[in-house]
Amino acid sequence: MVYYYTSRCGNYTLYMGKDKYENEDLIKYGLPEDVWFHVDDLSSAHVYLRQKPGELLNDISDELLLDCASLVKANSIEGCKKTKVYVVYTRWKNLKKTGDMVDGQVGFYRPENVKRVCVDKNNPIVKQIEKTKKEIYPNPNLAQEQLDRQREITLQNKKSYKEQIRKEKEAAAQAKKEKEELSYDRIMKQDNMKKNTEIQKSVEEYEDDFF
Question: Are 38 and 17 in contact (CB under 8 A)?
Fold first, then answer.
């Protein structure tokens, strides 16, 4: 079972698994936009934030960060009893899972990309978020959601690549046109040139014309 919540600002979805086994599915089938939250050095739920495509960790507002950190603290058996705890968070794609790890345990590909925040007990905030709780039954097809998102990203990348190629061709054509307009080559064409034998006037005639 996966639990879904809506942030207080109303624009973001938070979600987490019911137990450590479902956490394994969430670790495996996340999306590139997902951000993972966990209480530091304590057992807790794995809470995920689904950001908008293109957003960065630094784009998470203070209010949204407080929502995620408060929810994960409240879902820690030990952490919920403490006045304050530290919560770590990072991109889902930074989670590292090896065969010797127990269910729910993760490492990181880039530990330097893991952020840490201190959060106090915020029961009013948690209660407000809990009111938005939803369960999807039967369980959502996380593998299919991931596959669909990957296909969508592939199509977007192809579209962006084609658009980039089109712009580069247009820029090259424009540069060539501007170069030709500034070049004397268009003036010095063969049709515009005359041989000495084709000049009928003698030097004296030119001098007469001058005077």
Answer: no
